[in-house]
Amino acid sequence: MNRILRGLTQSSVLALLAAVPMVQIWAVGTHTRWSPEELDHRYGPLADPVTSLMTSVFGEPGEVAGVVTGGIWSIGLGPVELADPVALGTLLTAGVVPPMALALGGLLVLALHVLLGRVFCGYLCPYGTISRLVSRLRPTFAVQGGLPRWLGYVVLAVALVAPMLGLSVVPWLPYAGVGAVLQGLVFGSWVPVAVVVGVLLASDVFLWEHGVCRSLCPSGALQTLVGRWRLLRLEPVRKVPCTGGCHLCAEVCWLGLDPRAGATGPDCDQCGRCIGVCPASRLVLRRPGKAS
Hints:
It is globular, with a radius of gyration of 20 Å. The longest helix has 21 residues, at 2-22. The chain is mainly alpha-helical. It folds into two domains: 2-226, no CATH class; 232-286, Alpha-Beta Plaits (2-Layer Sandwich). The chain contains 14 helices and eight strands. A two-stranded parallel sheet has the order 1-4.
């Protein structure tokens, strides 16, 4: 069941990202209008790529036929605009106070990270989905080993400090890059970001397997950081013995964790792969501290 749910959510996200620009239902603005001034007010230093996208799709500022509101890192949902907390953090360090709808949406997403940990990585991130697919192409001569996990916190700190220097890395985040490529294929100007995404995927195949998701993505690092207190965790059922010599759970974990050891830590994205392959059915997702 978990595998089916994961597959449905991952394919739905990719389908949405591909379909939205094709049918031109993506808009950024109030109701059915867009203006560079409003984008500057809402997104500060993150407004430039969105302004370029809107110009390429709709031309001059004015009325649009859009029904979906948001940037590549956000999406409007009723009175709020769900947004990546990393993106909002860069706005704050740049001295930009986001509008209430955007700030509230960012806090809701942050609350999701606190409650469920890296669930975005496991079920919703388009880059993670593609990385899992291309990892099947990993050759036998690929570099073994990986990057240290603490590197993700360094990248997160750099992403938050960069706006103070007049720079922004948010449009180049892995998940945002995939969305930008799909939009760029329809509207043009896709080559630069496609090169970045291509290099990241190539590094996952030939260098460190899934190294971008494990150790380089600032969004994943933030989810790991605040997800230490999440409601559900992967734990072994102590009363059920582990099959001797079996390491299937560690082999299928795309984040390089060892569920067999019983201490996956906050890096686990609760994808459930290990649960499905465990011959003893000793791995479960449950509240921390619940009796075995």
